[in-house]
Amino acid sequence: MSTTAPVDGTAVGVNPAVGIEAILGPDTRVPVGPTTTFPASAVVRLVFTGGQCTGFMISERTVATAAHCLHSGGSNGTWRTNVVAYPGHDGTTAPFGGCAALRLFVPSNWTGANNAPGGGDPAFDYGAAQLNCAIGTRTGWLNLGYPTQPVTGSCTRTQGYPADRPGQWASDDAVRAEDAAALYVRHPLVSGLDGSPVFYTPDPDDWCPVRPPLVVPCPCPPPPCVCPSPTVLGILSRGPFGSGPSATNNIAVRMTLPIINNFMQWR
Predict the structure, then answer these.
(1) Are 67 and 73 in contact (CB under 8 A)?
(2) 253 Cβ partners below 8 Å, 6+ apart?
(3) How far apart are CA 21 and CA 93, in angstroms?
(4) Which of 29, 163, 198, 203 counts the highest number of beta carbons within 10 A?
(5) Rounded Cα distance, 30 and 186, in Å
(6) Which PANTHER family match (predicted)?
(7) How far apart are CA 242 and CA 258, in angstroms?
(8) What is the bridge-based pairing of β-strands 143-144 and 231-238?
(9) Is residue 13 part of a domain?
């Protein structure tokens, strides 16, 4: 089940404040350019009143991101307002323009009363924004996939829009641990990078050779995507908390078939 919010009003940009950093070890971020080529073109700067996140196109008019970028969580939470997507933003200009969100989607487990007042269930920190234009026909979009084997040790990459510096930035790391709901990584996570896609690095180095195949329920996107398209296996969602691997790593919501099915319904 999912919770949906219609979005009214005119969308405008904001200048979000920089959040608390969760950089575990060296800051491995490198700038991405040009952002007009795929897959950078499909990575989205997502702004809303009071903040910003990262998202990524999953269809002509739908952006996937973290649920808390769309709704603050729990039964007492609120929906974000004035949500606008800027795919491929280069830090100065939006080469594809921007599209306002028409509808916001998050799982009902994220907004459920059982999670109040502390916010939504971290295992359901994913959602989507349906846009008022088909900008994805020009930017392309990313595939979604889930593994049927352990992926710990696999090389991964994220790309997104940190609030502490302009433009799109990428980082490479490896999955440090995993469980049924999450992948634990050390990709730098600062304000604005919430909602970044996590996918296999295009060409793993010898030090990181593990790449279990992913089940991809959806067909390869059309051009300008390049097949095989980068396949997202997780969404960067939050910094360290609690105990166990979550205490020493950043957390990505792990793609599963039920999650992908939700995204397909929201497209």
Answers:
(1) yes
(2) 66, 122, 123, 124, 125, 126, 181, 182, 234, 235, 237, 259
(3) 25
(4) 198
(5) 15
(6) SERINE PROTEASE
(7) 26
(8) parallel
(9) no
**Residue 111 φ then ψ, to 5°:** -105, 5
Distances (CA, A) of 46 to 68, 97, 256: 12, 12, 24
Please tell me the distance from the alpha carbon of residue 35 to that of residue 194, in angstroms, as a whole number. 19
Distance CA 34, CA 18 (A): 24
In a domain, residue 16? The reply is: no
- Which amino acid is located at 197 in the chain? P
- Give a yes or no: residue 67 inside a domain: yes
The answer to whether 88 and 65 have CB atoms below 8 angstroms apart is no
Instruction: Enter the tokens of residue 12.
Output: 């405008």
- 230 secondary structure, DSSP code: P
15 belongs to a structural domain:
no
Nearest to 54 by CA among 152, 169, 133, 141: 169
Instruction: Check residue 230 and give its pLDDT.
Output: 84
Contact, 172 vs 25, CB < 8 A?
A: no
The secondary structure element, H or E, covering residue 87 is: strand 84-87
- State the average pLDDT over residues 217-235: 78
Domain containing 50 equals: 2-7+21-266
User: In the predicted model, is pLDDT for residue 14 greater than 60?
Assistant: no
For residue 240, the model assigns a pLDDT of: 87
Total number of domains constituting the chain: 1
CB 162 within 8 A of CB 29: yes
Q: What is the pLDDT of residue 68?
A: 93
Element (H or E) spanning 159, and its range? strand 155-160
- For the stretch 68-107, what's the b/e string if a residue is b when 16 or more beta carbons lie within 10 angstroms of its beta carbon? bbbbbbbeebebbbbbbbbbbbbeeebbbebbbbbbbbbb
Position 254, amino acid: R
